[in-house]
Amino acid sequence: MELDLGPELRSFRDEIRTFLSEHRIEELAGVGIQAGFAGQSDEDSEARAAAWRAWEDTLAKEHLICPQWPAEVGGRGLSGVEMAILNEEFERENMPRVVRGMGESLVGPSIIVHGSDEQKAYFLPRIVNGTDRYCQGFSEPDHGSDLGGVETRAEVDGDEIVVTGQKVWTSGAHLANTIFVLCRTDPDVPKHRGLSYVLVPMRREDGSSNGIDLQPLRQMSGASGFCQEFIDGARAPLFNVIGGLNNGWRVAMTTLGNERGGSATTQHLRYEKEFWDLVDTARKQAASDDPLVRQDLAWAYTHVELMRYSGLRLLATLAAKREPGPEASVNKLFWSEYHKRFGNVAINLVGAQGMIRPEGAGYRTDRWQQAFLGSRAGTIFSGTSEIQKNIIGERALGLPKEPVVG
Ligand SMILES: Cc1cc2nc3c(=O)[nH]c(=O)nc-3n(C[C@H](O)[C@H](O)[C@H](O)COP(=O)(O)OP(=O)(O)OC[C@H]3O[C@@H](n4cnc5c(N)ncnc54)[C@H](O)[C@@H]3O)c2cc1C
Q: Where in the chain are the domains?
């Protein structure tokens, strides 16, 4: 379904559609709506990496990288509704958007809300042009859900801040050159009030260590998508503290709000495609007439449609220039629980075949095995389902607060 949102937005849609059909690069067709940096994947061939670079240049010239950001920092100032249209058109043309990972989705939006003008002018263009690649240093071995209790500490030393502690489960840390760290800068005040949000370079400018010992964590799949970091005296300019010293909790909440609700207007596109691919698999396996399979598929279809409609509701909120509220947690809970059950449906459907790994090095998984295994993580990262339910209960429904134990 394509929404008619009035003449201005219709002409914006036409403009993007024409641009994409004139500039599309065939080698990149079908690589997905979200993609990373040129040559990021080991499997990127030189030709693919070159195509990426050309696509990046083309989009950069049109200010279509981080296009939701103001023009003065390299974006195009698109509204939430325009962003949703843009994503739909990229999907329609089967071309990838060039996205800047956590820089674009998490740190940038937090700098836009809490940073000074000087910080915006310095950090945002570096995200747009790919100079800075971020990873998220929030979780610690004893502080995941209880994020406010983080123990990594930092002290001011002249015009620098010096960070010491340990972070864990840091996705993509091996690809990043900067980690945004939530750390304790005042241990003597109630826990949420003594935190700061600091952008810490992984290495010093001369390439030497910045006191961060990065250790990859090996997963059951054989891959190492996360790292843990032992941080011993890592230094960053005081300028890199976003939102001011001891104001890090508010900045972190902006980051988490974006993490949980950021893609709500378009995420159904991904799940819709995945759903129809599973329908194809069911047909190939001659299972699509089985009433139990049909019941599962109908359940999945209904849920993808619900995602589409809640995306539209959010679009209406954005079009009315209202800030989204606890929808972020509703969105996170809904898609992650949906996808976990979808993984079960998919692996049941493929049956015994689902127990056999594809040929090749490492612990390879095919797409339905990946959906089954990978979807388990969705109800944990960016705040577990239990935490989302607490937020919805307490902040959206006004239920009594969870009793504090101990
Ligand atoms: C794929 C993946 C990627 C990740 N990437 C990153 C990253 O890039 N950066 C980063 O900082 N972290 C990352 N994490 C870590 C993630 O944020 C934490 O795993 C998550 O916040 C949960 O924390 P924990 O693992 O310490 O579990 P715990 O907080 O110890 O929770 C254990 C269990 O207790 C439940 N529980 C805890 N508190 C409550 C409560 N108050 N009420 C009800 N139940 C509760 C939880 O729901 C959970 O089931 C990632 C995790 C995964 C799985």
A: 7-99, 108-122+131-251, 263-396
